[in-house]
Structures
1.
Amino acid sequence: MPRIQLDYSIYLVTGRELLPPGKDYYESLEESLQGGVTLVQVREKNADTGEFIEVARRTKQICDKYNVPVLINDRIDVHLAVGTAGIHIGQTDCPLPLARQLIGPDAIIGLSVRNLNECKRAIEQKADYIGIGTVWRTESKDTKGRKCLGPDGTGEILDLLHDTGVQAVAIGGIHLPNLPQLLHGSISPKYSNSLDGIAIISDIVSSKNPRESASNLREIVDSFKRARKSLNQYQVKGGVFDSPFVIEHRNKNEFTNDYLIKRVEDLMNVLKDETPLINQLTNKVVMNDSANVTLAVGASPIMSTNPRDVYDLSPAIGACLINFGTIDDKEGMQVAGRQANVNKKPLIFDPVAVGATSFRRETAQELLAHWQPTVIKGNAAEIGAMAESSEVASRGVDAAGSGFKDPGSIVKQLAKKRAAIIVLTGPEDYISDGNLVIKLSNGSHYLEKITGSGCQAGTLIACFSAASKIDYLNKNNEELFENKSQLVQGDMLLGAIAGILVYTVASEIAAERSDVKGPGTFRSALIDELYNLTPETISQRAKIEIRY
Ligand SMILES: Cc1ncc(COP(=O)(O)OP(=O)(O)O)c(N)n1
Ligand SMILES: Cc1nc(C(=O)O)sc1CCOP(=O)(O)O
């Protein structure tokens, strides 16, 4: 008989010592089940055997009312005494093959996994599921000396589970604000596997209102799973598509150049009407020009980097740009990005010269463990480094060589790996959400002759991503909270396309002006042409190619 299938979505691990003062354990448990907990593990670190059995027995009685299975932490004897669905064991507990012999073929066995080797062994030993941790620091267990895996490390482990049938939850430091970042950021780089659920102690147990806490977490996990399912449907059927970043359900036949141009025009008007604030943590070399291009398209720049300030500003901004050209404000970047995720703001990451030094590579990894970007923009060297491709070597901030043999597939694969929109800039620009690749062929050779043109493109992507979110909210007010797992509402692919198109078309017009004699005059003319650009000009000049 096959073992029962468990729903790992919201996996409550109990912790009586973490209850708020005065809250009864059984009352808290029942409320959390009403909020949507799908699986419970009884974890008793201080109880003696008799007490553990009694707690497990009463826990199972309550869970049975809600048809929620119970597992026992570590103790095979308690599992056998109470007749629960199975056990969860750690690396130093009873070895899995022995545990299987003792509890029989039908019981569930989950195993804690901290790295790739432990995961391989869990697969060999036929664990039913693995608990991947610790994702982030936690006060609920002593994890001193252990490396936090972050969403990235979790995703690498998920890749190994491809086609194995082994399920996976993540554990450690998971709370409502960082949950969307974990779910999106842990989508595995090679096979796009995602978590089956999350294991939680304190976010539920320490809550005064465990029903609400569980229900909030459940809503995010459910909507993430729905979005993943519709993405898979698109890949299978090749018809209507809906990536995790795109709320608009588009039909392939309607997604044409004319449609894109019309939507870019809409966003140009939104920016002028709504003047969103764009916070830019950017490098010293380009700060002034970036602020000016922001103003030229109708948005409003702010260049705040102080951690307290970016925290307070976050709810009020339209989008956040993190450009780590001079990496002076790492703490500010960590806080700004994290708060952008929490407040569901578009977060644009420009990893300037990321492949040039190990410091830059490590900083990028560290930042990406703190937050999930909506868009990653770079030149060939930067995108190559992010994709861990050796095809294009990195030389300072410039892309060496002519780029990739197949740029479309590089951006598409990286978009899947990073669960973000990827923008590759160069003589032609390539943009992908992991499903589609858009090639844009506007621009001027002068862009290579002024400093910070790539940085300005990142700024404009941030402006138009903010416009895309505003546009979405203006049109779908009642559906504001339709998909709580969404990192940001609005069509972020469109925001990226609009930013690049507006910038490159304006650069063409600037370069054609008779008063432009070289890079110096081009630089000023570019800001003027961004300011004067009309939707009609975009429509006349845009060179767009859509590839599936
Ligand atoms: C779902 C889940 N994952 C990991 C753990 C940790 O188990 P273990 O390593 O055995 O540590 P203790 O829980 O015994 O402290 C877990 N309990 N549940
Ligand atoms: C029990 C446990 N195991 C972990 C691991 O990494 O194996 S982390 C952890 C504690 C999880 O508690 P919270 O949800 O409060 O962070």
2.
Amino acid sequence: MSAARASLIDTEVAVRSFQVCNLPQPNSNSNSASALGFKHTDMSNNQGPSQLPAGKTKAKKRYLKRKKEKRKFRSKVAHAGISSVYIPEEDVQEEIGTPEATASEINENAAILDPPETSKRSKKRPRLVQDEDVNMNEPPVEDKRRTATPELIGVLPSFPLPALPNAPSKNQLSLQGVDKALIDAELVSPSTILPVLLGKDDGGTRLSERMRKRLRDIGVIELFAVQTTLLPFLLPPQESSRELYLPFGPPRDVCVSAPTGSGKTLAYVLPILEILARRVVTRLRALIVLPTRDLVAQVRETIEVLSKGTNLKIGTATGQHSFAHEQSQLVQDQTSPLQGGSSKVDILIATPGRLIDHIVGTPGFSLQHLRFLVIDEADRLLAQSFQDWLAQVLAATRVPANGAFPFVGLSRSRDAGAAIHKPASFDDIVPDGLSPTFLQGFHSAVSSFFLERKTPSCQKLLFSATLTRDPAKIASLELRNPKYIVVQGRGKDSEEGGILDVVTERFSMPATLSEHMVIMEPNLKPLVFFHLVHTRGITSALVFTKSAESTTRLVRLFEFFETVRCENLSVTPFAMRAYSSDLPANERKMILEQFKSQRIQILVCSDLISRGLDISHVSHVVSYDVPVDMRKYVHRVGRTARAGRTGDAWTLVEEQEARYFKQMLKEADHLDQVKRLRISEKDLAPLTGHYEVALNKLKQVYTRQA
Ligand SMILES: Nc1ncnc2c1ncn2[C@@H]1O[C@H](COP(=O)(O)OP(=O)(O)OP(=O)(O)O)[C@@H](O)[C@H]1O
């Protein structure tokens, strides 16, 4: 069969299918057939019998006769007013040449299939789109560029014009890539407090009767928001169900962001003491890491006060004493190869440097039994990478992946890995504890139901007023299903705002803090400071400078000034002292004691003590030199207005620094909170004479030194 013939057959098939559907025939068929050179009888014209070939067959005659009868019948029907019978001419014509099909059969089929309206419509052009194709839910969008006929506009579907998607909001963008746990943080209002009740009823605090009594004894009558949130999370409801270790349901780690002075220390100290109070044997079960010796001493004091009557032993490792002395204070037995170490303390408070020294170099010092690992001032400690302290501490709390016994203490090597993971023979092992980490070490050697692999129960608790959201730093902590708790400060009511504030590192401030800035010429800065000291009712102030040199100069100038001012007056000069890391430890301790007992009214220091230091009576904080970043600002001003007390913070800003400082506050969404204090020359006039004398005296001192 040639391709041309195949094409013709296809054409005929198409024509038939059109007939069945009663659609008009495409005219092109006959044209295409003739164009291909085939002799083709054009059946589309309504030709009469005269055009038939001369020799008629019987069938054709019969057909013509019937056709004639049909015409007669049609004209009769028309006369009778019956117009609903449809007899398509085309169908009749098509049947010519197919003698089997009679005109009456065709006529019958046509009458059944097609109502008269259809016959009219079939003559029209087929509609491109049916009405029901158009989505009625969407209003048609008029495309003015199209020049369609009104008929087409009515029937064509309308598609929305392309448009740019809505840009994500700034808030949405801020949350992108942020740890899901942080987005799901629990937001806590500072007003969430609980009373500390005496007697059987714990008032929802989950604290034991003994602990509540102890708190009342030291004047704590209610728990602050961060404490009321964390205690129920860390303490099971029943005292009797407080297991030391949870090998089959390891606890979740916790990250807490709460303003300065909001009571974060008690929030971790109380649950640690409550859980460890059940221990029988002394092991190192809680490790608290802090960035400075001063903070270690402060937290130790708090724990000692609250742990009275529990028999828990507390130790510190800060490097303040000799290494050998610390070793003897921390480890019972430095000679026996005890699997879990042999600790003299239940709770160790340490700075990271000295802690690593003990992990690496103290025989019998082990973190295998650790139940709590607290990292206070977490953002600052995570920023410290010396000796890779965090990785070493985490490694010391778990068993190595190869399943070797975690054997500690016999190596004095400086290589921590060697000390912690040194494999030992089974004979060397002297089991002395049942912490999950300890038991994990046995798994590879002894297969037993009782020694089936347990999950370490070491729970990490992170705290800061300026918690980092840096995913890399958080990842380095290897947190287990962490829960974030965010205590909102002043003016942070909305849920979205609370999380966004943490995510965008806009830190909360205590609600009781008032903040001011004074912008002045640089040469007037000391005089402005002296003016504030004498006119703003200072009783106890912390003053922050940018360097030890700046501290020394300010203290000397102030001493000269006070001497001159008080010469002719019967008043006691203000006592101001410098507090810096250059001073020997015991002198620093003494100065701090004098400040705490208010024998010194003004302490001038660097950012060394801007974090964590808790001195309740500090009425004012002065940033004599502007802080370099918002974190430092938050911690400096946070030395006042603690635990619900009021406090004032002033920042002295030299004219050329004003733009930078304001921008820093603006970026932290905090500019509105810091009011500008204007001090005129008239205000300063009463002090100018004394100031000039003091300045000259200082110049003489420096000239002599040079
Ligand atoms: N429930 C309480 N009732 C009364 N005083 C409390 C309570 N909880 C804590 N305090 C006191 O509030 C002060 C601030 O507490 P803490 O030092 O723990 O604050 P912080 O949140 O750690 O502050 P920072 O971030 O500056 O270190 C301390 O003097 C503490 O004794």
